[in-house]
Design goal:
Number of strands of chain A: 10
Structural class of chain A: alpha/beta
CATH topology of one domain in chain A: Rossmann fold
Number of helices of chain A: 10
Strand content of chain A: 15-25%
Helix content of chain B: over 70%
CATH architecture of one domain in chain A: 3-Layer(aba) Sandwich
Radius of gyration of chain B: 25 Å
Number of domains of chain B: 2
Strand content of chain B: under 5%
Structural class of chain B: mainly alpha
Number of helices of chain B: 22
Distance between the termini of chain B: 31 Å
Largest sheet of chain B: 2 strands, parallel
Largest sheet of chain A: 6 strands, mixed
Oligomer: heterodimer
Strand order of the largest sheet of chain B: 1-2
Largest interface: A-B, 46 and 51 residues
Shape of chain B: globular
Number of strands of chain B: 2
Order of helices and strands of chain A: HEEEHEEHEHHHEHEHEEHH
Helix content of chain A: 25-40%
Chain lengths: ~260, ~525
């Protein structure tokens, strides 16, 4: 990256800007023109019901899925026209994708570090730091295929962190992670944001978003329904309440009387 | 439960075909193609009807033997076996093998190949029409029992092989037994046909057929001949043996289902690896190695190290590596003796091995499944990713091809042809790997993902992969003459061409390999946003 590019990155106010992103799978419109600006140095939550288009949007923002139209800018650099400049700025934790499961946990972090172009000595040092910080010491020599879901999540997070990116895009980072590890991850992410980084995180857990994030976007039906600071979006109410109001409650709240133990 | 399982299968297949309509077209195409074979089989049974009963029996027994071998070998080494209802998927439903085995067994018979073979063997029984109703009825029963043996033997072979290949303690044993099987088959063919095709057909083949007629391989097909010869007992015990074999295979299949229900697919087995194989395969950038190409950038070496681990430990890669020997061995051990080809033809085998290895990589990228995300998000790393992948294959492929070439030279004693053969084989390897690298990015198709049954296949997957396989095969065939023509000239015109073949093979092979890695890498970068969707 040239000095001019670096200056551009530092000075750009939005860590991530999505402009008119759309994606269609057959007859299904998964993302219908998402516009979103994620400020630098923010902890940004993206929430929405299942199938709202969160993962598709984040995949398009991180170079994993080509959009039908629209732009994804990382610190002003277009992910799809300048991927060699944009991708090094981002650390990605996708949800529901395989990992190279024949490697051990430590090897997977090493692999991610080398793929990011880090020198061998730096990779070794950061690998050991990350294994310790994420309580994965014992897992460092275990094959990823034998990992639990939570361990897989943590090792993928370590891969996202290893090159010290400027923006972290994390899809459900706390899913299946135990409370102790979740605490460690929270601390790492909060320190990352405090040091000037930006975290974009999708989650279904409103309490977690309220606790960690300073900004939030509510996504539904492939579009942004509300976005801004957590206080602005929740409008003085509980975020979960506001979320249900925005996306709508379950339309058919059927009584499952047959499920009650007393009815047997 | 049978109806439930069958309904589940057909609903799943319907959804698969609705999701990708072209699969349905290819499935229908396969069925139509099968139907077009009916006139040929009809004509065959008419012709067979005019042959003497013992000749007719020998021919149908051998046909059944070839079909049974095909049913067992092809899914293991080439196509995988349709497993829409992989029994492991029932593990969380709390059902027993006894409950689902009948449905799964019937489902196994309601596939296009099973129905086709059932129809063909029923049709073949028409060749006994001039020998009375009894012979015809026995032929139908014997034929259908033979098809049942084929279908169930394929299921059991795949289930057992999947179990063995996923267990590192038995993996070596499985590969060894495959090697022994191939060696035995080759030896039998050489011994049987060493005096030429005609002598073999006249003397050896009837002996082999008679032996097979006493085994579950050919007993069902031979039973009507025994009946016609007045050997009622011979017909009955053969049919009884076939029934027993079907029952035995059915039991083994049910046992495999029961095993799959309570044994989640064996993964790493708690194996640990202290040394970092990825960092260990990477220098510190200070090396002064003359092979700068080999000590290339960190990402290339990381990918190479990762793929070397996969080639050593991932069942899907191990199966792919074992499968490449099928074509050259078939050529050397079967085609050569059958066609009475002279010694020089054996030189085709190492070239075939090289092209099998190279062509076999035409869907290489898809084996990473969605794990590919890590390569994609790491930057525009296409060239490094593809070069690393190809280098990892080269680590075992180049020695394998050279060993095959030296082995054939030693067998033939024609050491003077060594430069030409080595040039042609190495050139073919480089060229086919280059072509396949481009195909793997341009036309990837879904395949068994990490941890899935390496012998499993989806409905229509064979057809689905047809376009990519055809395109890569045509491209491979187009570049092969560059490597093989000078060698051919060295064998037929002047031995001096051998050194030309050596030089052109090495140079063009290296050029094609490098060009393929670069072109595939650029394409990888260009298609990075489409790749995961294409292979998952």
């Amino acid at each position: 990256m040239s000095a001019a590019d670096a200056t551009e990155v530092v000075s750009h106010p939005a860590a991530m800007s999505l402009r008119g992103l759309t994606k269609r799978f057959g007859s299904t419109v998964a993302v219908a023109g998402v516009d979103l600006d994620i400020p630098t140095h923010s902890f940004y939550g993206v929430v929405g019901p299942n199938g709202a288009g969160k993962t598709t949007t984040l995949s398009m923002a991180t170079g994993l899925l080509e959009p039908d139209s629209g732009q994804a800018l990382i610190h002003g650099i277009d992910m799809w026209t300048q991927p060699a400049l944009a991708k090094p700025l981002v650390g990605v934790l996708p949800d529901g994708l395989h990992t190279f499961d024949r490697l051990t946990g430590g090897e997977l972090i090493s692999y991610a570090g080398l793929m990011r172009g880090l020198p061998k000595a730096t990779v070794r040092e950061r690998r050991d730091d990350l294994l310790a910080a994420l309580d994965l010491d014992a897992a460092g020599s275990t094959l990823v295929t034998d990992f639990s879901a939570g361990m897989t999540k943590k090792i993928a997070l370590a891969c996202a962190l290893v090159h010290a990116p400027r923006v972290l895009v994390l899809d459900e980072p706390f899913e299946a992670v135990d409370p102790v590890s979740a605490g460690a991850i929270r601390r790492i992410l909060q320190e990352f944001v405090a040091s000037g980084g930006t975290v974009v995180m999708s989650s279904h857990v409103m309490a977690l978003v309220e606790r960690l994030c300073d900004h939030v976007a509510v996504v539904g039906g492939g579009a942004v329904l509300a976005a801004g600071t957590v206080a602005d979006v929740s409008q003085g109410r509980d975020l979960e309440e506001r979320f249900v109001e925005l996306v709508g409650d379950v339309s058919d709240q059927r009584d499952l009387s047959w499920l009650r133990q007393s009815s047997r | 439960m049978v109806a439930t399982v069958l309904a589940l299968k057909f609903t799943t297949v319907r959804h698969q075909l609705q999701r990708e309509w072209w699969r349905a077209l290819l499935l229908i195409g396969g069925a139509v193609w099968s139907v077009t074979l009916v006139p040929m089989v009809w004509w065959a049974q008419v012709r067979l009807g005019f042959e003497a009963a013992d000749v007719r029996a020998s021919i149908v027994v051998l046909a059944a033997a070839v079909c049974i071998v095909g049913w067992i070998v092809v899914p293991l080494m080439v196509t995988g076996l349709e497993d829409t209802l992989d029994s492991a998927r029932f593990a969380t439903l709390g059902v027993s093998a006894t409950q689902i085995a009948p449905g799964l067994t019937i489902a196994a018979f309601l596939t296009v190949p099973a129905l086709f073979f059932g129809a063909m063997f029923t049709l073949l029984s028409g060749s006994w029409r001039y020998d009375g109703v009894g012979a015809r009825a026995i032929a139908v029963v014997g034929g259908l029992l033979t098809v049942a043996v084929m279908v169930l033997a394929a299921r059991v072979a795949v289930a057992w092989s999947a179990r063995a290949i996923n267990d590192r303690r038995t993996r070596g044993l499985l590969l060894l037994s495959m090697g022994v099987g191939i060696a035995v088959l080759g030896s039998v063919m050489w011994i049987g046909l060493r005096d030429g095709l005609e002598a073999g057909l006249e003397f050896t083949v009837p002996v082999v057929a008679e032996s097979l007629a006493r085994t579950p391989v050919g007993a069902g097909m031979y039973a009507p001949a025994a009946w016609v010869a007045g050997d009622t007992w011979g017909a009955l015990w053969r049919l009884a043996m076939m029934v027993a074999m079907v029952v035995l295979l059915g039991w083994a299949w049910k046992d495999s289902i029961a095993h799959a229900l309570v044994h989640p697919l064996h993964r790493g087995g708690g194996r640990r690896r202290r040394a970092d194989a990825v960092l260990g395969g990477v220098g510190d950038g200070q090396e002064r190695s003359p092979a700068r190409w080999w000590h290339s950038s960190g990402p290339v070496r990381a990918v190479r190290a990762r793929l070397l681990v996969s080639w050593a430990t991932d069942a899907r890669y191990v199966v792919a590596a074992a499968g490449v020997v099928a074509l050259p061995v078939l050529f050397f051990a079967v085609a050569m003796p059958v066609l009475s080809l002279e010694t020089r033809w054996a030189f085709v085998a190492p070239v075939l091995l090289a092209s099998s290895i190279g062509w076999g990589r035409h869907n290489d990228v898809a084996l990473d499944s969605s794990g590919l995300w890590l390569d994609i998000v790491s930057g525009a790393r296409g060239r490094e990713v593809m070069l690393g992948r190809m280098q990892a294959t080269l680590v075992w492929a180049l020695p394998a091809v050279l060993i095959a070439a030296v082995g054939i030279l030693a067998w033939s004693g024609r050491w003077a042809d060594a430069p030409g053969l080595i040039g042609a084989a190495v050139g073919t390897l480089g060229a086919t790997m280059g072509v396949s690298a481009v195909c793997a990015v341009a036309l990837p198709y879904r395949t068994a993902g990490p941890g899935e049954n390496p012998f499993g296949a989806e409905v229509g997957s064979l057809g689905a992969s047809f376009l990519a396989q055809l395109a890569s095969a045509i491209a491979t065939a187009a570049v092969l003459p560059l490597m093989t023509v000078p060698f051919f000239l060295s064998l037929t015109v002047h031995s001096g061409w051998g050194w030309v073949a050596f030089a052109t093979g090495l140079v063009l092979g290296a050029v094609c390999f490098t060009w393929g890695a670069r072109a595939a890498g650029s394409l990888f970068n260009h298609r990075s946003g489409k790749l995961i969707a294409a292979i998952t």
